[in-house]
């Protein structure tokens, strides 16, 4: 009998394995309440429990290896969208152009805001880059329409308010004003 077989038959190993299977089953029951995860599992054939545990593991690694968190987050925000934007420009349909143009406006706006307050944000939210990465993925995925949602609920009201104020503030001269000078 090999050493690996002896370990696998050891009562402690068997007990730990049974407990792990029990907890995975419980987590699977809990995650089955979410249609998004069920749909993900059906489309990818990856068990939703393993996908969630893998995502949590990746987030933990990003948090633990903090110097890698910012470049990884920015690579996620730039790499695939840049490629898909290039592909969108090559297609005759304008729908994908709108998707990626909206994404770049939102991504750029949040990166601009981030540049002002990153130290403060990292002080209060050490897992910021993990959350930012999840947010970026949400913005990118056409199924969620995150970029469009963010644009229409956050950016458009701000930008239309700013552009509306700049027009209202701009002085206008009439011919009567010009003759009085």
UniProtKB/TrEMBL annotation:
Q: Where in the cell is it found?
A: Membrane
**What membrane topology does the UniProt entry give?**
Multi-pass membrane protein
Which keywords fit this entry according to its UniProt record?
Membrane, Transmembrane, Transmembrane helix
Q: What does the entry list under GO cellular component?
A: membrane
Pfam families tied to this protein: TB2_DP1_HVA22 (PF03134)
The transmembrane segments are 50-70, 101-125
Looking at the keywords, is Transmembrane helix present? yes
Regarding protein family, the annotation reads: Belongs to the DP1 family.
Any idea what this protein is called?
Protein YOP1
């Amino acid at each position: 009998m090999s050493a690996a077989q002896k370990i696998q038959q050891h009562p402690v190993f068997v007990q730990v394995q049974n407990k792990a299977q029990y907890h995975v089953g419980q987590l699977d029951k809990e995650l089955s309440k979410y249609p998004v995860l069920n749909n993900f599992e059906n489309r990818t054939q990856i068990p939703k429990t393993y996908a969630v545990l893998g995502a949590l593991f990746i987030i933990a690694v990003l948090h633990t290896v903090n110097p890698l968190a910012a470049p990884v987050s920015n690579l996620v925000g730039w790499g695939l969208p840049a490629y898909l934007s290039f592909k969108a420009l090559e297609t005759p349909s304008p729908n994908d152009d709108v998707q990626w143009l909206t994404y770049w406006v939102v991504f750029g706006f949040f990166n601009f805001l981030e540049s002002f307050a990153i130290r403060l944000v990292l002080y209060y939210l050490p897992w910021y880059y993990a959350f930012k990465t999840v947010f970026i993925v949400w913005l990118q995925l056409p199924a969620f329409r995150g970029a469009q949602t963010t644009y229409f609920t956050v950016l458009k009201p701000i930008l239309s308010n700013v552009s509306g104020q700049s027009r209202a503030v701009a002085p206008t001269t009439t011919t009567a004003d010009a003759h009085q000078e």
